[in-house]
Write a structure and sequence with these properties.
heterodimer; A: mainly alpha; Four Helix Bundle (Hemerythrin (Met), subunit A); B: alpha+beta; 2 helices
């Protein structure tokens, strides 16, 4: 009886089993999360009230800010929240100590700090960004309310720090102790999914040799999630149980996956070009070269892979590699036996890419097997000693823009404060700064501001009901207060699990916790409530205004910017240091694209184009490095001046791209290839290998350049 | 030991300082235990971690409040 039949029988015996399973996997985690966040919030409230903290709201607010379904995220966010608070509190003490009497210096220094934190927030990834946001707005919260009485700043600083710590402790302990959900588990699941995805994509001949199809997302499926999975890996390091070795395995898998996807894409685009020229014979030869890989991968089971299966695959891939090499030489002789003809370059490049693909797949499988073994028995089969850094790209223009916006909105609200002389305007400043800092990395910040505003308004209504009706009427002690606010806390917990409501929830929590009467003793006045609400709402409007004013980014500008950065990268590879790792090249490029596709308002078509440019750049960049390394190790009498000449031309073409430059470069590449082909090959194996590498890589560069029509010439405007 | 200490001219509860120091020790200890694979042999790693921290934090606290 197979597994399916068995399942059907068991469903007949227990008719509710499927419903129960679905409930357990979909609804139960939400309910558990709601319970966890409510318990953590009430615990924080209780501790803060018992310790007589002046502002228990901060503790309970902190709980909701750092609370996430998985423990790893909570730890990571908490860690950076503590660091951010320390920096913010320290800066408040400094700024109040130095400039409390001098408005000009005070405002100037303040604006510099906010600009700095906004810029840094954009520069750093993951929750490090959040630490900088906090460092920025803690200054507003600590320094502004005591501007009239500067000596109180010490009390506020210490109590604020203590309250944040209480909130963080409650959130982390509750999330790690009660029904913990580990981030590492989701990392394992996504890695498994991705690995299966790779194997199933590569086991299908059509995924490479079928025509490009806009509707068929093979390419995007094969390339997604690199940056996201890296973030998950970084955050999971805060959890218990993930040893350093396991995390290194994940880093390597991510890196190998990037390499694989670059090779896959390059191969596919060459095949695509051949398809357009209708070169059936060459395509058939390539397909038969690739067919051994397909037949190996097809034997894999659909279910979870066992180490034995993987071991077999790895062995077979090694044999396949040798078979392909032999077959390639035979095909090469058969197809181009007489003379060097036009299509030969493309054939060599494609065949070389197939071999590289098999190599990289072999590596990827070996690392995955090692991870499986490590998880099952603690003995990794692969010694991973090299630490891979995930390099990121920071665009100075984007950072400068963010800093300008952060400082600008602060100065604007400061002017509003000075002009109105309104004591509550400090709240306006805080809110505007929070909006300016926090929503800057979102794809569409203006929509975010709208959501935040809606959440804030609804929170004000709920808070008003609590402040003026429920709390004075029904609460007598901490227990009744806790019972009465529990429904709202649970509701906030539920909203946090809905990704669509993220910013709305943040607005709601921010305003609700700001206005709720959670003081050690009841002291809410209607006028104060109204005035502070109004000030906060004005602050949100100012924040939104900043996004409208400092926002001249557009699709075509992004394209130009990305193209320029990619071009500069190639130019730098042509004459810069040789010790650039391929991993750094790949991760920087992907991070760059991720950053621009969230910030740069690209449409579908242009983001696909930009992604293609990235992959061309990666391919050319890698080839340039390999060529330069080979030239360095080649004896001088095997060197051809035309190769150096070609490298110079590549550099100047990417510095100032032009149609004539492209033609000249292509013909020079052709010429140097012909020279390499016609001159006698070195007899020594090492030297011979290097000359072969030169030929293959130069051919590859030439093929990529011919195929890449829109980069770096930007001949197509896809933004309209 | 006193219940309040003065750091750079700011008076703050000693508990806060003890907390920060035990947090640092906890982070180092956690790294070591995680690399040594101790958490694989523990029934509830989260609870174990919390318990270790409570010990680290409570011992100096009891000493100053004695």
């Amino acid at each position: 009886m197979n597994a399916n039949n068995r399942r059907i029988v068991s469903f007949k015996i227990f008719p509710w089993q499927r419903t129960l399973q679905e409930w357990l996997s979909v609804d139960a985690p939400v309910l558990i999360y709601m319970a966890k966040s409510t318990i953590a919030a009430l615990l924080a409230l209780w501790i803060a009230m018992t310790l007589n903290m002046p502002d228990p709201r901060t503790a309970i607010f902190t709980v909701f800010i750092v609370m996430q379904p998985q423990s790893g995220l909570v730890f990571s966010k908490s860690y950076y929240r503590v660091l951010g608070t320390i920096a913010g509190v320290g800066m408040s003490l400094l700024i109040m100590g130095m400039f409390a009497q001098d408005p000009i210096w005070f405002i100037g220094f303040f604006a510099l700090w906010i600009g700095f934190t906004t810029a840094m927030g954009l520069k750093y990834r993951n929750f490090q960004f959040y630490g900088f946001v906090l460092a920025g707005y803690t200054l507003c919260i600590v320094a502004l309310p005591v501007i009239e009485t500067p000596l109180q700043v010490f009390d506020i600083a210490v109590s604020r720090f203590s309250e944040v710590i209480i909130g963080i402790m409650c959130a982390t302990v509750v999330s790690d102790v009660i029904f913990p959900r580990r981030l590492l588990d989701s990392l394992i699941t996504s890695e498994q999914e991705r690995f299966h995805n790779v194997l199933s994509t590569l086991s299908d001949t059509d995924s490479i040799f079928a025509a490009f199809d806009e509707a068929n997302p093979t390419i995007s499926r094969f390339s997604s999630g690199v940056v996201g999975l890296n973030a998950t890996r970084v955050n999971s390091s805060f959890e218990s149980g993930a040893g350093q070795k396991e995390r290194q395995h994940y880093a390597h898998l991510n890196q190998e996956y990037m390499n694989l996807s670059t090779t896959f894409y390059s191969l596919k685009s060459i095949v695509h070009a051949m398809k357009e020229q209708e070169r059936k014979e060459v395509l058939n030869a390539l397909e038969s070269l690739y067919s051994p890989v397909v037949s190996v991968l097809k034997t894999l089971p659909d279910t979870l892979l066992a180490p034995e299966d993987l071991n077999r695959i790895i062995r077979e891939l090694l044999t396949v590699k040798n078979t392909i090499q032999v077959q390639l030489e035979l095909d090469h002789k058969r197809l181009y036996e007489s003379t060097h003809s036009a299509g030969e370059d493309e054939f060599i490049s494609a065949a070389y890419l197939i071999i590289r693909l098999v190599n990289e797949l072999h590596n990827h499988c070996a690392t995955y097997l090692s991870l499986l073994k490590h998880r099952l028995s603690g003995n990794a089969s692969r010694e991973i000693s090299r630490v891979i850094q995930f390099s990121t790209h920071t665009d100075n223009l984007l950072v400068a823009l963010a800093a300008l916006r952060g400082s600008g909105v602060l100065l604007l609200t400061m002017v509003f404060w000075l002009w109105s002389g309104w004591p509550y305007a400090t709240l306006t400043i805080t809110l505007a700064v929070v909006i300016g800092l926090l929503l800057g990395t979102m794809p569409s910040p203006l929509d975010g501001v709208k959501d935040f505003f809606k959440g804030a308004v609804i929170a004000l209504i709920v808070a008003a009901v609590y402040d003026f009706y429920i709390i004075p009427e029904y609460t007598s002690d901490l227990l009744t207060l806790s019972l009465l606010i529990t429904p709202v806390l649970a509701f906030i917990g539920w909203m946090t699990t809905r990704p669509k409501l993220a910013i709305f929830t943040f607005g709601f929590v921010f305003m609700f916790m700001n206005q709720l009467a959670l003081d050690p003793y009841y002291k809410i006045e209607p006028t104060k409530f109204m005035e502070s609400s109004l000030a906060a709402l004005i602050g949100i409007l100012f924040g939104g205004l900043a996004y409208i004013l400092v926002n001249f980014w557009s699709c075509s500008l992004t394209q130009k910017r990305v193209a320029k950065i990619l071009r500069t990268q190639i130019v730098r590879l042509c004459d810069g240091a040789l010790n650039v790792e391929r991993s750094a090249l790949e991760s920087t490029g992907r991070d760059l694209i991720q950053q621009f596709s969230t910030q740069g308002r690209l449409n579908m078509r242009s983001s696909r184009l930009v992604y293609e440019w990235l992959l061309s750049t990666l391919e050319i960049g890698r080839a340039i490095l390999t060529i330069r390394r080979s030239i360095q190790r080649l004896y001088s009498h095997y060197l051809h001046p035309s190769v150096d000449n070609a490298m110079e031309l590549i550099k100047s073409y990417f510095e100032t791209p032009s149609v004539s430059g492209r033609d000249q470069l292509l013909s020079t590449l052709q010429k140097s290839l012909q020279e390499l082909h016609s001159s006698p090959m070195p007899t020594e194996i090492g030297q011979r290998k290097r000359v072969e590498i030169l030929i293959v890589e130069l051919t590859l560069i030439r093929t990529v350049l011919i195929n890449s029509e829109t980069f770096p010439l930007l001949s197509e405007d896809s933004c309209n | 030991m006193q219940l309040d200490i003065t750091l750079f001219g700011i008076q703050m509860p000693t508990l806060l300082l003890i907390f920060v120091m035990s947090a640092v020790v906890q982070i180092l200890l956690d790294r070591m235990m995680s690399d040594a694979g101790i958490y694989n042999h523990v029934w509830h790693p989260g609870l174990f971690r919390t318990a270790v921290f409570v010990c680290l934090f409570a011992i100096p606290c009891l000493l100053i409040y004695r």
